[in-house]
């Protein structure tokens, strides 16, 4: 799209991005609130505060400044890596200790970002391509769980869920193939609308939550009381956020590929600083740690709309949803199966973007094939069979169950080993020729 988009179209495209990440944004407060025994009112506050902070964090990331914000079309959302640790900390200590740890770990990210930026030389094309591919592939089980109706749903795998997901997917594909211009760009939004309409006809859409939600809610700092500080909790959350930094790096690079631009070290450092500030804000408003959401990268790939204005609109919509819970509740009526149908396209697009990066790698070169093969196998294996780590200590188990973590670490370590091996072999050959 060469000419600027009209405000209405920008808003519609921004809403599409919000809906793409909405399930992930809402499910985290639902899981944590339920696990820690919070009341419905408290969980409703968590959802509103989370959306509000997601919006502010995204705006900070997109607008950018000298020290903060990557100025890339990146959407920030609460990281799933933090769910388990937050539940453990909240259960063993208190919810106040959770937010104390979040605030300190956010400060750590802000201060550590420049040092982390100097380590980006360990992310050559073979590593970044593997990481982006792993991000996409590890999200596929999430999509399939939603296709079946949502993990733990009473009607999990019911034919009507599969039918709704298929209908949504087919509509998205048809619109993407035959539509032109703006309609093609909002193919996912059209698919979600048609899928939800079909679900309503099947009596699968209910508006009770909308009626019960309040009209206005302003997030209150330290809503659950003053933060408490525990060294164990802080150490755990710092480790979680280091993992998120690696994950976000892959997302930044994937966005760069999707928008046809080279992502500089400065952008990644500023982006991570912005995430650290968002994490601290999340701790103050009793929300969550934030990271770059890979879901929205697939949407950029699919729509080919690369302007930051759309993500700016998405951030504004999330702030509005956080202030107006009744409006936010309206978006929750979309059935999981309908979301799952859309996720197949979006998550698959992320994996395809990673494969596109890997297409630039010479797999015949010594070591490259092993790096790609092992990192993909380990990452996908961890994501699909997380129970393999069940007998390890809780903290280690939670981290290793993330395919993005295990796959990324495998790619980085193997690249270091293989690179050193190639350098040693080259030095030995030069020495032999010299003699």
UniProtKB/TrEMBL annotation:
<feature type="transmembrane region" description="Helical">
    <location>
        <begin position="72"/>
        <end position="90"/>
    </location>
</feature>
<keyword id="KW-0813">Transport</keyword>
<dbReference type="Pfam" id="PF00860">
    <property type="entry name" value="Xan_ur_permease"/>
</dbReference>
<comment type="similarity">
    <text>Belongs to the nucleobase:cation symporter-2 (NCS2) (TC 2.A.40) family.</text>
</comment>
<dbReference type="InterPro" id="IPR017588">
    <property type="entry name" value="UacT-like"/>
</dbReference>
<dbReference type="InterPro" id="IPR006043">
    <property type="entry name" value="NCS2"/>
</dbReference>
<feature type="transmembrane region" description="Helical">
    <location>
        <begin position="222"/>
        <end position="243"/>
    </location>
</feature>
<feature type="transmembrane region" description="Helical">
    <location>
        <begin position="310"/>
        <end position="331"/>
    </location>
</feature>
<feature type="transmembrane region" description="Helical">
    <location>
        <begin position="12"/>
        <end position="36"/>
    </location>
</feature>
<dbReference type="InterPro" id="IPR006042">
    <property type="entry name" value="Xan_ur_permease"/>
</dbReference>
<keyword id="KW-0812">Transmembrane</keyword>
<keyword id="KW-1003">Cell membrane</keyword>
<dbReference type="GO" id="GO:0042907">
    <property type="term" value="F:xanthine transmembrane transporter activity"/>
</dbReference>
<feature type="transmembrane region" description="Helical">
    <location>
        <begin position="156"/>
        <end position="175"/>
    </location>
</feature>
<dbReference type="GO" id="GO:0005886">
    <property type="term" value="C:plasma membrane"/>
</dbReference>
<feature type="transmembrane region" description="Helical">
    <location>
        <begin position="337"/>
        <end position="358"/>
    </location>
</feature>
<feature type="transmembrane region" description="Helical">
    <location>
        <begin position="96"/>
        <end position="115"/>
    </location>
</feature>
<feature type="transmembrane region" description="Helical">
    <location>
        <begin position="398"/>
        <end position="418"/>
    </location>
</feature>
<feature type="transmembrane region" description="Helical">
    <location>
        <begin position="122"/>
        <end position="144"/>
    </location>
</feature>
<feature type="transmembrane region" description="Helical">
    <location>
        <begin position="182"/>
        <end position="202"/>
    </location>
</feature>
<keyword id="KW-1133">Transmembrane helix</keyword>
<keyword id="KW-0472">Membrane</keyword>
<protein>
    <submittedName>
        <fullName>Xanthine permease</fullName>
    </submittedName>
</protein>
<feature type="transmembrane region" description="Helical">
    <location>
        <begin position="370"/>
        <end position="392"/>
    </location>
</feature>
């Amino acid at each position: 799209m060469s000419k600027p988009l009209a405000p209405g179209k920008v808003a519609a495209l921004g809403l599409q991005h919000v809906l793409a990440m909405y399930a992930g944004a809402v499910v985290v407060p639902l899981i944590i609130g339920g696990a820690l025994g919070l009341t419905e009112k408290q969980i409703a506050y968590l959802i509103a505060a989370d959306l509000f902070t997601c919006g502010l964090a995204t705006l900070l990331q997109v607008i950018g400044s000298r020290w903060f914000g990557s100025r890339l079309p990146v959407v920030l959302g609460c990281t799933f890596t933090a769910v388990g640790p937050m539940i453990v900390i909240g259960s063993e200590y208190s919810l106040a200790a959770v937010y104390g740890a979040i605030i300190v770990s956010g400060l750590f990210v802000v201060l550590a970002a420049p040092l982390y930026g100097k380590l980006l030389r360990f992310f050559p094309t073979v590593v970044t391509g593997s990481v982006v591919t792993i991000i996409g592939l590890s999200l596929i089980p999430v999509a399939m769980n939603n296709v079946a109706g949502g993990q733990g749903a009473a009607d999990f795998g019911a034919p009507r869920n599969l039918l709704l997901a298929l209908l949504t997917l087919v509509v998205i594909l048809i619109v993407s193939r035959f539509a032109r211009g703006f309609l093609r760009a909002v193919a996912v939004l059209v698919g979600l609308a048609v899928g939800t309409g079909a679900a309503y006809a099947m009596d699968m859409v209910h508006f009770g939550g909308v009626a019960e939600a309040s009209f206005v809610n302003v997030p209150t700092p330290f809503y659950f009381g003053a933060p408490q500080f525990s060294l164990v909790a802080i150490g755990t959350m710092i480790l979680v956020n280091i993992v998120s930094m690696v994950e976000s790096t892959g997302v930044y690079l994937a966005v760069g590929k999707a928008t046809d631009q080279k992502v500089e070290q400065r952008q990644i450092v500023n982006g991570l600083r912005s995430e650290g500030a968002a994490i601290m804000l999340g701790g103050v408003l009793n929300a969550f740690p934030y990271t770059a959401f890979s879901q929205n990268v697939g949407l950029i790939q699919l729509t080919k709309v690369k302007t930051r204005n759309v993500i700016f609109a998405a951030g504004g919509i999330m702030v509005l949803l956080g202030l107006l819970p009744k409006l936010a509740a309206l978006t929750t009526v979309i059935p999981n199966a309908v979301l799952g149908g859309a996720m197949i396209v979006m998550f698959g697009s992320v994996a395809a973007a990673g494969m596109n990066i890997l297409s630039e790698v010479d797999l015949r070169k010594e070591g490259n094939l092993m790096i790609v093969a092992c990192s993909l196998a380990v990452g996908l294996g961890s994501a699909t069979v997380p129970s393999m780590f069940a007998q390890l200590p809780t903290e280690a188990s939670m981290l290793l169950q993330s395919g993005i973590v295990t796959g990324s670490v495998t790619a980085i370590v193997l690249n270091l080993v293989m690179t050193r091996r190639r350098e040693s072999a080259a030095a030995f050959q030069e020495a032999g020729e010299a003699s």
